[in-house]
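Request: Mind sharing a record?
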Amino acid sequence: MPTQTAAPPAPPAPVLLESIVARGKVTRRDSRSAIVTTQALDWPGMLVEAGRNDVAGVDDLVGDQHYLSLNLDTAPLKLEVKEPHGFRPFVIPPRSLWISPSASPITLRLNSTLRYLRVSIDPLHLGRLISPSLDEVAPVRLRRTYAVQSPQIANLMLTLREEADSQNAGGLATVEAVTTALGHLLLRHAGIEQPGPVRSHGGLSALAKRRVLELIDAALDARLTVEMLSREVGLSPAHFARAFKESMGRAPHQYLLALRLARARRLLETTPLSLSDIAQRAGFADQAHFTRRFKRAFGTTPGALVRTLH
């Protein structure tokens, strides 16, 4: 009697756009046309996704991160972008990208299933990476720019994709180094005059920040506490909590929860693990705690999501 082989896990859903949307609407063609080949949704301050496009348009979309989209196809991408006097066409040649800044509404239409590589970066996170001093940090401001032809930017984005595909073999230090180089090039191609720096008092030093992020990355499934993290960098728990929020933009427990939810969702979409196993691997106390937090964040339970995927 022939043995039955398990069906391969369903590919992950394209979620980068929805993850950075502050307001507005994303219209997709249908779930069958979406093909995601790469995702990294748990890196600090940024997201990476590659695949085949299924977006048909966006309306009054405002993102809370800068958005870069690299055309990996052999054919040009044609966009219709709404401007004050109607829709205006833009063409993005192969191996070129377009940039949409955070907090800037956009409405566009496209009719393409191109292969894409998308990277989104938090403006303040990028400012911290490229600032010469952690005491003087300002969010990086960009302008909307089309058909940017920069082999350097393309190669850096591809390097981020490779890190995601290898499960970040180089560690977060590699991701931050690549993102720093990318930030300097973005300023050259799409930067606008920056406001005066905002003084940041009491943030983590570069060394302490790197140590904490590496520990979180390595032990996300463990019971990480503020006390444990603060000991690693020689600070009191209260001082560490304030410094962490100053450096990362959110409190330690909020940051850990966001990473754990992202890891859990990725495991749900790419593995056949049970909900209890996923809860454990993502660092939740138990399956019930995982289910409550997941539903609050995504509007559906983990079990319901699994049923839609399979």
